[in-house]
Amino acid sequence: MKEYSNVQILDHPLIRHKLAIIRKKDTDTKQFREVIKEIAMLMAYESFKDVPTQEIVVETPLETTTQTVVKENSIAIVPILRAGLGMVDGILSLFPAAKVGHIGLYRDEETLEPQEYYCKLPTNIEEKVVMVVDPMLATGGSAVDAVKMLKKRGCKNIKFMAIIAAPEGVKKLAEAHPDVKIYVSTLDRCLNEHGYILPGLGDAGDRIFGTK
Fold it and tell me: What is d(CA 69, CA 86) in angstroms, rounded to the nearest whole number?
């Protein structure tokens, strides 16, 4: 696959280990949900290296010193419903003050194109670093549309995080939004005729919420 300057694969032994767990078809809902959260936390650690910061003065038991902290109200997490919800708590464990918005898109079973049904975003989201999350970047349609919705609302600093991606989805998102940094933990082989990632892990939403 062509390399894109805005795409980063966060290949790490811990993430690979956890990927093996969520790929297994016999991993139960509880463990699947927990590991999705853990992977999201590990990926957030790396993908927020350029998070906005500010200097503050603190008093240690011995003296006063200047320290660097994450800038207040600088981060928003926007999961694509419903599977993206499974990644939110992992990121919030690192950035507990982050605001959370929601974008609802469903995939038309025949055209495979995304359809919008919900959008609720934090106040002043255009001033924040926005991380859009979805465990799977398959066709890329939902990701492209979610970013487009955010841009229409004035967002300029947008990132996208997916745990597993297909080359087709990466290509579509990277080319549609070259200004958006894309983080994935692994790039799988391809999509099947139904738009599912191979080898993938099945339907992430169903496995997170135990609906199948």
Answer: 27
- From the candidates 23, 27, 89, 203, give the one annotated as an active-site residue: 203
| Tens-place pLDDT, residues 69-123 | 999 999 999 999 989 999 999 999 999 999 999 999 876 777 767 788 999 999 9
Residue 105 is classified by DSSP as E
> Which of 2-6, 32-36, 207-211 has the weakest average pLDDT?
2-6
For residue 206, indicate whether it is catalytic: yes
Q: Read off the tokens for 36.
A: 């999705």
111 is catalytic: yes
Catalytic choice (23, 27, 89, 107):
107
Catalytic residue among 111, 153, 189, 211: 111
Strand ranges (E), 60-207:
64-70, 75-81, 99-100, 102-107, 114-120, 129-133, 136-137, 157-165, 181-187, 190-191, 197-198
Q: What was the pLDDT predicted at 161?
A: 98
For residue 90, what are the contacts with CB-CB under 8 A and spacing of at least 6? Answer: 36, 37, 38, 39, 40, 41, 42, 43, 44
> Catalytic residue at 28?
no
Q: Which is catalytic among the residues 23, 27, 186, 206?
A: 206
pTM over 0.85: yes
